[in-house]
Batch of 2 targets.
Target 1
Amino acid sequence: MELSRPLGRLIGVRPHVVEPGGGGPSRVTRPVEVVVVGGGIAGMSAAVVLAERDVRVTVLEAAHTLGGRLGAWPERLADGTTQTVEHGFHAFFRQYYNWRSILRRADPALAMLKPVAGYPILSHQWPAEEFGNLPPAPPLNLLALLLRSPSLRLPELRGMDRDAALPLLTYDPQRTYAELDGTTAAELLDSLRLPDRARAMLFEVFSHSFFNHEREMSAAELVANFHFYLLGNGEGLAFDAPDEDYAEAIWRPLRAHLERHSGEVVTGSRATRLHRTGDGWQVHTGDGRTYRGDQVVLALDPPALAALCASSPQVAAAAPALTRQLATFGRPGPPYAVARYWLDGDVAARRAVFSGVSRQPTLDSVTLYHRLERPSRQWATRTGGSVVELHAYACEPGVAAEELGERMRAELALLWPEVTGLAVREVRARVEAQAPAFTPGAYADRPGVVTELPGLFLAGDGIRTDFPSALMERAAATGILAANHILRTAGAATEPVHSIRPRGLLAGRAAQRTR
């Protein structure tokens, strides 16, 4: 463990500078107004960076709470108490350098983040596997996984196609997408000839975490994410999570920080149309108001982004490339379901706070919120119950949220038999379809931060970057990049942007083989 990080740094597994920051005065020297549409991670990251440099920022959020897919809101239970419900559990991995930089604005020591011990994968077919306590940096983490995992025993691995596995070690931001984006993740996994247990417990669980089915997901995206989470960073698979609900731990403090820098947040205000004026932009909202900005950052989920641009005739007419891109990008990935249960007793003490689930028809993860966040812990202590959240990352379309919740609870009972004896006191279930799709062949036409329209920028976890990033970290990084483009036009200093090792451990060898 102690050797892992020095060895990793020796072979280049360390944070890399994408943008160094600086380049001008610390604040803008002339009035600049920006409207940020969307108050999730991407939008608030852009707004915070801009407001700190004296840009006048207005954030418009359609919901009544901030956060997007990291949102949280109060729910009144039948027992008269109020509990905060979230959009689903998120792991705060330690290579999320840019997102953590934004969070430090409100919590410099990141004291609200606590380590989540262990990361078991549950299966009805095989014993659980543990992904915690690996060395943090490659290549030792991969070696330890190979030595420890019962899914990767040497006799079974002899039948594996090692040449087919080479792309997992040779990620390159250009070559990987050129060679593999037209292939599905399922086809790549088929080609590996992995033992069925290894495929189920390692790769299928991993691919589902990106809210896509492997049969509908680009193999290049799978390789890029494998590099980002396992083989390209020096932090390992360990992650943290807030010990308060997201509203209390993240959104209230970040909003207060933004407002201290004269930023404005308007919730419950849905942008309905964009209009380009001679000297900037106008954003019209559903309540009849108009907000003016010299530049606009659209930090929306794919369907909302496509709908806003489609309802803005001027954008559609003046930006044919963006319009073409959004015709595909605006179709989200499969629906995902979240069901939070308040139960009348607890699960076994040995159960992990967070567990992934392999090959259940619906259930992909389980989170024990009463062992994670203070409000849920207080409710459980007072009542003797538990708060259990079940998550399906890519579920069957057209099924009601309540039915999906009950399917997931029944599947959990197969894995944890004690769940059968626990009565449900409350449940809140919902289905959404807002996550980006990473369909084969779509990368070349995926929109990036800069659009063809002057002063119009995009940010979000589906927006293309030229460096490894994913999920919350991509949302934060693209928000910061959008802010940096605006700051450069105003002659002000930009925000540093970091990422992991840009290419795979054996990327140079792969390049030689293709010559």
Target 2
Amino acid sequence: MATTATKQQPSGPVLDWSAGHGPVTGALSATTGAFAVATTGAATGMPPGWAMAVGAAGALGHTVVGLRLRNAGRTLATRAASWLVGAGWTTWAMTHGPLTWAALGSLATIGVGIGAAARSTALYEEAREEEAIAAEQRQIAAELSAERRAIAAEWVDRIQRVCSITVRVVGVEKWETGTGYSLDAELPPGGATWNKIAAESPRLSADARLPHGCTATASPGIHQGRVIIDVTTVNVLEQERTYPAEYGPLSVHTGIPWGYRTNAEEIRAYLREQCALVVGPTGSGKTNLVHLILAGLARAEDMLTWVIDLNAGSAGLPWVLPALSGEIKSGDGKAVRPGIDWLAGTFDEAMTMLDTAVRVAKQRKMGYQDLLARHNTDLLPISPKIPQIMLVIDEGAEILASGDRDMRKLAEKILEVIRIARAMGIRTVLTALGATGSVLGNLMIRREAKVRVALTGGETEGMDLSKMFPGSRGLRVEQAPYKGAGFMGTPESPAALFKAWRILPNQIREIIAATSDRHPVLDEISAKAAGPAYARRWDADRTTWMRDHTPADDAPGTGPSREGLNLSALRSERPAEQVSPEEQMLRQFRAQIDAEFATAADPHGPAAEEAPPRSGGLNLSALRGEQDSPAQQAALAVLLAAGAEGTGASAIARALADEYGTNRQTVVGWLKAWVQDGTAVRVGEGTKARYVHRRHAPETRAEE
């Protein structure tokens, strides 16, 4: 039979022999040691002088050690005296006998004295050490205070010199990130406001000789008589930082991080009641920011993301395809869910999504009345069981400003969602190519999109920051010349410089895998309202376009040569009901050309010298002018086809997008050049401006 040894537990008090002596144990050890030595020495005839010699050596040794430890004088004296008194008693006891009442009584008295002296010196040493630490802290505080006083005095003089305002700095706080500091200043009586200092931000920054990309910005203080001035001393905007690799859970209530300020602290967007507007020209990092926003929404436990991108769904495909194709697996080998809940890349799918959102909002209003009453609120309590729906619409602001018939239908639905769905937890994030009057002209957008981002990348064309951030002063595009940098303002944080993290493609795949089990499911009431349109959103017949990577027959380089003006290149094979009015007009114009006129040869081609064009025909070489680009030639054809009514840059860009991939910004540049050289005439101002070919301009027709 196997036996096991049991460990015997010690009984009685446990003594820690490695612990040091305290006042009581030290005195007891000294007296018992002296008594033992005296008794042994008396019994063996030990010379009494030896005890005195040992005591003197002990006193000397403790004094040397105490000096090295920088003990106080009273501590050194107490310890030396203890050794000498103990040695003196031992010497006397060895001579006269240690077992007499006189010897024992005097030893006990010595023990009590040694204990009391040791306790007193220990307390003194503790107080002395605490005082030394406090003195060091006072010295550090004095040095910091002196530095802060110098900073405060410097900025008082600077504000007086630049702004003609005498302020009193009541506090200077250095940022933990080491990239700057903040001044809390009191404004003088007489009606001075913080806005006057904010308006002089560029001059203050220049006067302070701050590095490029660093600013001195003013914002409201604790009350209207105070101002906070944030001074950046390190330009963090020029650094590219990748999206944080920690993909922990987020919530609509905690906010979604979109980037970081100049003080290196992250800034969050709170989208429970607010919509968002993101503008940025080509090359400013807008697409990267869209992916960054989608990453934050994917990490949220109480949010579902629906994406509309009519540019072949490019904004949402990286979040969908890896999951649908089975390229990514979870830790246990199971398939993962897409990073977004729904993707619309076509007009029909976008209309279906927006109709579904409207039905969900209305059904939630009816189905959750009891829940709203129990919580005594008119805002639907958002949670993982009742998730918020975020509609991310790439270039959605352009849809709202478009004059195209189909786009107007989408715009009406988008505005309806924005108007009716705030309380029921459906909000939108719209993007645009620029901060222009056409984008910000809609009152609904200005009122609801309080979270605003303007990525500049140094681009000044079409970036009216005063319209994007009304009331904010001192914002200049040249302050953020870096890709991904710009300005961000929220109801909780005034408009100021910020930069978006760089999110890498492999991080998107990591986030899809990490957050697959975190995505909520649409609540029962909302799912019932959404119906089959939502339930079958990932069916093969509705996602075929996502997997169709076959290049088009007329892709550049795969079709016939397009030297010269090839009008057949502008033809579209789409059904007539899916063609915009501008494109229908263009088709009619091409048909008229083919039926009634002869097309002139390319003036730059080999046939130009063989046969001149017929005098009675339509010489299309007039459309070429000095343009060498087929896209520009096609744009001129669209402009000419528009007739006396004229057209705009957006309509021309849409007509050429499929064939040439031309965007609105490019067309705007062409139109400006044509107005300058007389090829086109600008009619109207602002959002009603149209461009008319010179052949159809009123002045030209009058001359003819």
